[in-house]
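Per reviewer request, we include the raw input and output of the structure prediction for the construct analysed in the revised manuscript.
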Amino acid sequence: MRKEDKVLAVERIVSTAQEYAHFYLVSVEAMGAEATSKLRRTCFAKGIKLLVVKNTLLHKALESMEADYSPLYDSLKGSTAIMFCNTGNVPAKLLKDLEKDGVPSLKAAYVEEGFYVGADQLDTLCAIKSKDEVIADIVALLQSPAKNVVSALQSGGNTLHGVLQTLAER
């Protein structure tokens, strides 16, 4: 690979990483062409961008970015693919579904400004809630007391109306 091509590849990785909030480093060593193609289609359907990269180019790209990605450097061994996404737990759930096949396996991840290194972190990553899920939970919690007050007022109004109507009929 020529030096110009390497520079372009590093720039492509950096620009893609800046477009997305989260990324996963995945081992694709044991995957054949058919399995890789299936993984690419599944990722595309779930809004995940998948790039297979050379470890040295990825290392240079991570070094050139503003944040410190040094905890991920030890994971850059063997064949590596990067899964970019804007929802932090979607790739983890996809990898969990594919886990029974044994490939691909999680090497490391950068999610919600935190580093998760090792395949044993997959369950933790699946449990992370996305921003939209957290907002929905907060809205539900805030609505619950208001709904209770409204329903109590409505039932009390119906009871009061019933008592007044009964008294009026007598």
